[in-house]
Every structure is written in structure tokens, then in C-alpha cells.
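protien #1 (seq + structre)
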Amino acid sequence: MKWTDSLEIALALIDAHPSVDPLTIRFTDLKAWVEALPEFDDQSDRCGERILEAIQMTWIDEVD
């Protein structure tokens, strides 16, 4: 899983953190949680605010 796999990442985060409201998460925490996913395999420096925002929005869409 890479940074651009926002749907896969969002689904994995829903499984890993089912009680978290994605609207309340800070990007620093979101980045750490993504990097901690066992399926995740990408470099930290390839991530920026735009990518984190896309992951967060996908997470919000999938929860609703």
C-alpha cells in the first residue's frame, strides 16, 4: 500500500481505529497511523498535506 492508495488506507484505518471520528484527527497523527499499518510500504517523505487530506476525506466518505 502506497500513499496514493487513499481508499485502501482509509478502509484499513477504519478497521484499525473504529471509534475515531476522522474529522477530529490531526495530520501528524494520521500520518503516523498510516505508517503503522502493516500493509503500508512507502517512504515518509513522499507524503504531504494534500495526500493526508485525501486520505482523511476518503475516510470520512467511507464512514458515512
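ok now protien #2
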Amino acid sequence: MKKEIFIGVLVGLLATAVGFYFYVEYALEGTFEEALAIINEKKLYGKVLSIAAIANLLTFFVFIKKKQDYRARGVLLATFLVAFLILISQFL
């Protein structure tokens, strides 16, 4: 059970990272490095991470559809972790 939740957390964090990459690479103008510089300059990490976390929705429903509830629970925990990081980044 703990192993399945851990796998779900890892998949959730990976999905967020992939969502972040695709959003920065394809939705923002300029190169990847230029987009990261703009995000850093304007302190947009929270907004970009919240958009990137939408990828967790897909992974959550895939795990639910496959009846892998503990992995889906792990994805949900990863989403809460990302939300907590977004909350912290708003105060820094």
C-alpha cells in the first residue's frame, strides 16, 4: 500500500514537471531559457506551477479508471504538495 502511494506521488510530481516543461516551452514566447528568466524576473512561479499541475488531473483519472486507487491517492498528495509550494512561493 505505501509503495503504491509512493509511486503515485512520484508520478504526480513527474506529471507536474512535464506540464511545467510543456507550458514553458510551447505556451510562452521565446526560448526555454528566456521564458524561465521572465518567470523568475516577474515572480510567476506560483502561476506557472498551478497551470503545470493540471497534468495531474489526467494522471489521477487514469489511475482511477484502472482501479489503482492508492496510486491515485499518491497523485492527489503530490498535487497538495505542489499547492503547498505555490502557497509558500507567494510569501517569498
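The longest helix spans residues 2-27.
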